[in-house]
Amino acid sequence: DTGVSQDPRHKITKRGQNVTFRCDPISEHNRLYWYRQTLGQGPEFLTYFQNEAQLEKSRLLSDRFSAERPKGSFSTLEIQRTEQGDSAMYLCASSFSRGQPYEQYFGPGTRLTVT
Amino acid sequence: RKEVEQDPGPFNVPEGATVAFNCTYSNSASQSFFWYRQDCRKEPKLLMSVYSSGNEDGRFTAQLNRASQYISLLIRDSKLSDSATYLCVVNKQVGDTGRRALTFGSGTRLQVQP
């Protein structure tokens, strides 16, 4: 499968625990995005990498959230001291920076449930 | 006011019907426009881009009115497999980072019934 992959697909955790999600983008894509989607809403932008550089973070990304893309390939999103309000689908997307950069390809998402 | 507004539906239509979805956006700096499709508990997938001249892909027709900041999607001869949520998406360049920001509407749910 040459699409965007995410791991795990589902995560149930207790409030206060830390969780980490992984995203593997399409191999030729140098741009990587994280989004969050809650029930009945469209995805909302969280953060963006071009290669290994994190170029932008949304105001939605509190201090408890951190994202990395150390070698410009896969990325991780960590949430510390999870809260029930963090329950959502976390989506990763990737794209080229040339050609049609607006065509973002999404992974299957990680569904987080905080109990 | 949300940057991208859609009627949430659901739209319940019989097979073979024609259905139209509308969307408005508030940011005149928006540069590109799309419809994404999202099946239940799945990721969004690009359905089609939307051009000022209007564009068609099989049973799907998309139109853009920049003056009114309005986007539409028309589905003809609905199939059961068209049942999904349709997300209206606008895109603009953000600052100097090169990021092309996708802003999603909340989606319109379509249920095609036999």
Tell me, what's the shape of chain B?
A: globular
Q: Approximately how much helix is present in the residues of chain A?
A: under 10%
Low-pLDDT segments of chain B: none
Helix/strand/pairing category of chain A = mainly beta
Overall number of strands of chain A: 11
Order of helices and strands of chain B: EEEEEEEEEEE
For the secondary structure, the number of strands of chain B is 11
Largest sheet of chain A: 7 strands, mixed
Q: What is the H/E string of chain A?
A: EEEEEEEEEEE
Looking at the chains present, what oligomeric state does this protein adopt? heterodimer
Strand content of chain B: over 45%
Low-confidence stretches of chain A: none
| Rounded radius of gyration of chain B (Å) | 14 Å
Radius of gyration of chain A: 13 Å
Mean pLDDT of chain A: 91
Q: How many individual helices of chain A?
A: 0
Tally of contiguous helical segments of chain B: 0
Tell me which protein chains meet in the greatest interface and how many residues each side has: A-B, 25 and 26 residues
Question: How are the secondary structure elements laid out?
Answer:
The complex is a heterodimer of chains A (115) and B (114).
Chain A: E1 5-7, E2 10-13, E3 19-24, E4 31-37, E5 44-50, E6 53-57, E7 65-68, E8 75-79, E9 88-95, E10 105-106, E11 110-114
Parallel strand pairs in A: 2-11
Antiparallel strand pairs in A: 1-3, 3-8, 4-5, 4-9, 5-6, 7-8, 9-10, 9-11
Chain B: E1 4-6, E2 11-14, E3 19-25, E4 32-38, E5 44-50, E6 55-57, E7 60-65, E8 70-75, E9 84-94, E10 99-104, E11 108-113
Description:
The complex is a heterodimer of chains A (115) and B (114). Chain A has no helices and 11 strands. Chain A is mainly β and 115 residues long. In chain A, the strands form 2 sheets. In chain A, strands 2, 4, 5, 6, 9, 10 and 11 form a 7-stranded mixed β-sheet that branches. Chain A has a 4-stranded antiparallel β-sheet with strand order 1-3-8-7, with no helix packed on it. Chain A is globular, with a radius of gyration of 13 Å. The N and C termini of chain A lie far apart (33 Å). Chain B contains no helices and 11 strands. In chain B, strands 2, 4, 5, 9, 10 and 11 form a 6-stranded mixed β-sheet that branches. A 5-stranded antiparallel β-sheet of chain B has the order 1-3-8-7-6, with no helix packed on it. The mean pLDDT of chain B is 90. Classes of the chains: A mainly beta (115), B mainly beta (114). Chains A and B meet through β5 and β10 of A and β5, β9 and β10 of B.
